[in-house]
Amino acid sequence: MPYLSIGVVGSGVVACELATLAAHTGSHVFLICKEKHRAFVNKTIERVQSRLRRRDKEPTSVTSGLFVGSDMRSVVSAHMVVEAITESRQAKLIVYKELNRLLTRNTILASTTSSLSIKTLARDINRTDSFIGFHPFMPIDIMPLVEIGVLPSTTNSARILVEQFASSLNKVSVCIMNPLPGYVVNRLLFVLINAAARMISTDKLCPENVDASMRNGCGHSMGPLQTADMIGLDTVLSIMINLHEQSNDSAYLPAEQLVNLVAQGHLGRKTGHGFYPPRIK
After folding, report:
1. Left if phi > 0, otherwise alpha if psi is -120 to 50, otherwise beta: which for 170?
2. What are the contacts of 269-278 at 24+ separation with CB within 8 A?
3. Tens digits of per-residue pLDDT, 10-30?
4. Average pLDDT of 233-253?
5. In whole angstroms, what is the distance from residue 61 CA to residue 20 CA?
6. CA nearest 159: which of 127, 178, 132?
7. What distance in Å separates the CA atoms of residue 175 and residue 167, rounded to the nearest whole number?
8. pLDDT exceeds 70 at position 239
9. 166 within 8 A of 173, measured Cβ to Cβ
10. Least packed by Cβ within 10 Å: which of 175, 252, 257, 263?
11. Is the pTM of this model over 0.70?
């Protein structure tokens, strides 16, 4: 496996988990985050480190190759830069504009987006040959899958390097040509989450029963509402809106229960209340 220098841009869980795992598996990683989110970033990195130490029975730090900062210029020499910010086309384009100014045409620019069009983003920044979708699943240090989205114009060298990076993370990679927004998993998963959310309102079912049915009837390790709470309901809603706008499929029209929970600030595990209410301590 060749030595890889990787840049990761983002302050959320996806960026932190990806950067920590990449450093743990041998890459030299620069994580670019906002200073105001530095405490959250450090806490998330430590949580992933702790899981990796327990998994590998390794008592010492596992991220000697991870450097955290806020200066985008730190990624200028990276082989690949992964953008992992919020699911907003406008926000992503601001980041891409700065990265385009700093990076050479040979540097691979990837996005972890799970609901926006890779083709559209690549065209927006005139980087159709070296822009790739790289969609891992949380927790990134545990879940084995990464969906890789490539375009007909993607260079062979770019595709190979991204696949090598996925392999270095010990991931099972599924490479999809010209992926639709949502790839494979989210196009299926978010229909399921939305239907489950509607059942709570229309059928008066409780989240526990919906999830238990899917776990025990379909062999899912987690039910759809548990999964939504883990992802974060604000993220789920943002992805759902993007999928609905781009597909015009009513299956992605956000369920009223989901919209109401987000409006009330009940975002799932990160706030302690989502489809599942707070646990009594």
Report:
1. left
2. 269/229, 269/230, 269/232, 270/232, 274/225, 274/228, 274/229, 274/233, 275/197, 275/200, 275/207, 275/225, 275/226, 275/228, 275/229, 275/233, 276/207, 276/208, 276/225, 276/226, 276/229
3. 999 999 999 999 999 999 999
4. 93
5. 11
6. 132
7. 12
8. yes
9. yes
10. 263
11. yes
Average pLDDT, the chain: 92
Contact status, residue 41 vs residue 31, Cβ threshold 8 Å: yes
CA neighbours within 13 Å on the CB side: how many for 59? 0
And the tokens for 252? 């992605």
pLDDT digit string (tens) for 160-191? 999 999 999 999 999 999 998 899 999 999 99
Confidence of residue 281 (pLDDT cuts 50, 70, 90): very low
Q: Which domains does the chain have, with CATH numbers?
A: 5-177 (3.40.50.720), 186-263 (1.10.1040.10)
Q: Token pair 């299956």 is at which residue? A: 251
